Amino acid sequence: MKHTLILLGLALPFARSKTSGELCSGTGARAADGNWYCTEVWAITYRNISQAGVYNRTTYVDPSTGICGHERVDYPATGDLTPLFGEVSMHLRGPMNVSQLAVYQLPGEMHTLRKRNIIPFYNRKPMMNRRDIEFAAQAPFQDTYQMRPFDKRIYNTTSSCSTQTVTTTVTVTDCEADQPTSTVDPLQNTAYIGPPLPCMPTPHPQALDDSISDPICTCKDSPSLPVSTQKPLVSPTRSPTEPASEAGNGEIGKRAAPDWSRVAYYTSSAPSQATGFSFLANLGDPQKSGTFDYAFGNSLSYVTSDGGQVASESLPFSGTLDTSEREIAIFSDKSCDQDCPYWRPNATSHFGWSGSSKAFLIEFQMDHYQNQGTDQGLISDAPAWWFLNAVIPRVLQYGNDRNNIPCSCWSTGCGEFDAFEILGNGEERAKSTLHRQGNLQGGDSNYFKRPVGQTLKFAVVWHYPHITALVLDDDFNFSTALTDDQVQQLVSYDPNSWTHSLFAIGD
């Protein structure tokens, strides 16, 4: 999810666009004439995103030189370093109206977020201060805590705005009393560290019918497609590749799977009652929240309710992003601490949501509105909902350093999942894509219909080792918990369904 932004002479990456061939190559539906076509679906499962790979992790950001440092990370098929199994942040781009938003996790994968209380916005500031004091009393920092080099930090707690030299080359400003800053000792080599990253091929999606040898569609609509207008019936299978347990296996008193707990919830009918969320944008201002410098531009900051201006504290979201000129980044309500990976100095930084089992539910509407100002290359009338490796926005979502090296790990494949993305001005088709540059990645050719004039309930579910994006029933309840059976029914795959597409990332 890239845009073109030009800020005070700082040129940032151009928007990525796709050709018709790229949009429609994959597991489309095959019509009677033997051709493959893109078609509207109710669900898309990205099968087996669990593979080992490599990317570059940011180790420091130096605004005085405009240089970022990196180190090579070889990650396993599972774990926090594996793209999108670790922390993710959630992102929205207008034009969009959000009615509801919820995040669910399995209790065993909630990690440090298990220790936070649910605090609504209307009493957030005093309660957050109280919670932080209680947490510090329960788990004080240990002198023996050993940090890796990229985790090394200095925490500033003074409330003045005097400058303080943290290292010989990194200068920060102590402008926020409660916001820790993240710094590290700079490395001697400020360019890319390590051997060239390998280019791993993206697997060609396989047709579900083995007798079909050419799964390439021609990206044209066809009235002869046997596409159902009804949502498919779900079966109790647990995942696309995992068969249901056989009955009569002799197990006695088998323990039921745990419920998925709702750890964050928002409704536009009562924004101040939202819990578990922080709403941010790349609008940093040292006088309010976040930071700004001429090398890297604006960092993440808190924003006003419409997402248009920087705010000094976390505020409720109105639910409306007027145009594609407005983007917000959504994190948990827990500020970064010693367990948070490196973040840009003085940026407003929060934890995302980690784990290989997590679910994000949204109710939204995407009516047509053109950009209002001089958009500087930003695409117009192209709303989107997507997820990033949370390290990306905490460091630098858009931009390169002065050696023209990307500062974040995005370009080397640390992970993005576009769940519901409009790719062109005024388009009605929403695409999904898994981005992991240099590693296994890909995007399904089929699409979801953009909700214009009415709301749509939609979900993205991580169910190891897969991700499923799907349309929910209109009466689906964003309840305080989802049973494991509910989740498994949502993501179950029927190979005979015309409305649930399967895209194989790994075997």
TrEMBL record:
It catalyses: Hydrolysis of (1->3)-beta-D-glucosidic linkages in (1->3)-beta-D-glucans. GO terms for cellular component: fungal-type cell wall. Residues 1-17 form the signal peptide. GO terms for molecular function: glucan endo-1,3-beta-D-glucosidase activity. Residues 43-105 form the Cell wall protein YJL171C/Tos1 N-terminal domain. Its EC number is 3.2.1.39. The keyword Hydrolase applies. Residues 223-254 are annotated as: Disordered. Pfam families: YJL171C_Tos1_C (PF10287), YJL171C_Tos1_N (PF10290). Residues 259-490 form the Cell wall protein YJL171C/Tos1 C-terminal domain. It is an enzyme of class 3 (hydrolase). Residues 225-242 have a biased composition (Polar residues). InterPro entries: YJL171C/Tos1_C (IPR018805), YJL171C/Tos1_N (IPR018807). The keyword Cytoplasm does not apply. Keywords: Cell wall biogenesis/degradation, Glycosidase, Hydrolase, Signal. GO terms for biological process: cell wall organization. Belongs to the PGA52 family. This is glucan endo-1,3-beta-D-glucosidase.
